[in-house]
Structures are given as C-alpha cells and as structure tokens.
Amino acid sequence: MIDRQARDLPLDAHVHTDLSHDSAVPIDDHARLAAERGIAELAITDHVDFDPTMPAYGYVSFEDRERDVRDAASRWADRGLAIRFGVEVTYERAYEDEIRGWLRRHPHDYVIGSVHISAVSPYKASNVATFVTGRRLPEIVAPYFDEVIGAARSGLFDTLGHLDFVKRYLVPHVMPADLADAPDLYEPVLVSLIETGTALEVNASGLRQLPRETYPAPHIVARYRELGGAHVTIGSDAHRTEWFAYGLAEAYRHATRAGFDALAFRRGADRVTVPVPTGRLQQGDGP
Fold it and tell me: What is the pLDDT of residues 43-89, one digit of tens each?
C-alpha cells in the first residue's frame, strides 16, 4: 500500500505551485503540509517551457517566481522548513541553445531537466495508438529516450526528471511490464547520466498515475547503481495538496534498496549530499 502522507523525510526535490500552469496550489499550502509532516526541505520547481506552443511558455516571469519563492523561504525558515528556488525546464533539443542562455542569465538553486509531451508528440493521446501500431518496442520509445539522452548530454541540468515519463502515455498500448522486460533499452540513457554526472530522479508521481510505479521503476534505479551511477534525488512531483508527498517514502525505499544512502541536491552553489534514513526505509518501516 502506498503511503499518501509520508513523514519525517529530509527532502522533496520536485514540487509545483500556482506558479505552474498545471497547479493551483499556493506555496504556503505545500509549506504548511511539509512543516506538519516533518519534510525538512522543499524545492519549488515550477515549469518553464521554451517552445511557444507549450503551456508553460511565458507563463510566469523569472522575477515573479524568484520573488515569490524567496519570500516564502523567509516566512517558513523560522519553522524549520528550508525552501529552495528551483525550476523544471522542458528540454527539447531544438531549443537547447536558448535554454543554455536563459539558465546562464537566470540562476536557480536547483534545476531539473525533463522531457514532456508536446501537442505534436507521437505520444499524445490522439496520436499514440497510430504511432505504436506495427512498431517494435525499441522504435516506440526511441524518440523519447533520444531526447532524454540529449538532455543529459547537454550538461545543463542538476537532475533528469521522471526519466521514463513516456510510459504514462503508452498505457494501455505498451504496459510497464513490457518495458520491465526490456531493461537494455534504458542502458544508453543511464550511461548518459553517469558520464555527465547528471543525477537520476526517482519520481513518485507514477505511483498515482496509470503506470502505478515510479519513474523509473526500482529495477532501473538498481541498474543505474550497478553501472556506476552515484547521484540520485527524489521528488513527489506534487501539483495538488492531496498529492503532497504521495509515494515519497516508496521512492526513498527504491533508492536505499539500490544502495544509496544520500541524495544529490544543490542549494545554489556546489552539489551537496542529503543523508537519508536508510535502515528504517529498507525495512519498510516509518513513513
């Protein structure tokens, strides 16, 4: 059973607020829940898109986002909650130069790079059935995984968000079990993370979505570690208050069972490590 109200964890590194187009949650609502449940640190990682056809393009200015997050950080610091100014950038190879320049001009504490589904994507609901017909699994996932590799190779991001988010859109045409039976498809993606030092995010949102497993699943987290992966982070990807910390403890367990005893994070300077309560989580106790 997935814990809907994880408690006493050090970090949720992926949280959305009303500064994103797809969330209506004020920062203080997430902060209140974090303080009540003992989640010690939050990264507010609202969406920024560079494709003008994507919904987060120009949605909120950098200046407004930074002001709102920094003000919230000041309000909540006395209650023992650390709030960091992050961002989730939609990576598209065609916009890499623009993303690079924008990030250089607009520093954040922490930067997630993610591949999302655009209006013209083959994985969009109106396109996916036709796209998968007659194609083998490697051909089906190649466009998505190629973009993920591009995001890692760009060197722009602290973390790659929800690495295999595409599986949300492939259900029921391709099921998570089909991808689980083809772990070799993930290896070029994992190698790109390892070679660039980009952290792997264990994203809990898939536990409340159709895949019913994290992005990526635990065996992929374990394989990343086996291949030499050294940097992992964890986020709930909450867009609503009822999703706050949903499945977060389960994502922590996937990381600790793979052998990680600390998370990779950044607070505006160099990368830092955030220790996790490995023993309690591995036993399945606690949160």
Answer: 999 999 999 999 999 999 999 999 999 999 999 999 999 999 999 99
Cβ(127)–Cβ(121) below 8 Å: yes
Tokens 């209006």, located at residue: 119
Contact at 8 Å (CB) between 156 and 98?
A: no
105/125 Cα distance (integer angstroms):
36
| Strand-pair category, 82-90 with 110-114 | parallel
CA distance 39 to 56: 27
∠ CA 256-259-260, nearest 5°, is 65
Cα dihedral value 8, 200, 19, 37, nearest 10: -10
Q: Helices in 208-277 by DSSP H: which ranges?
A: 218-226, 248-257
Tokens standing for residue 232 = 């992992």
> Could you tell me the pTM of the whole model?
0.95
- Contact status, residue 57 vs residue 51, Cβ threshold 8 Å: yes
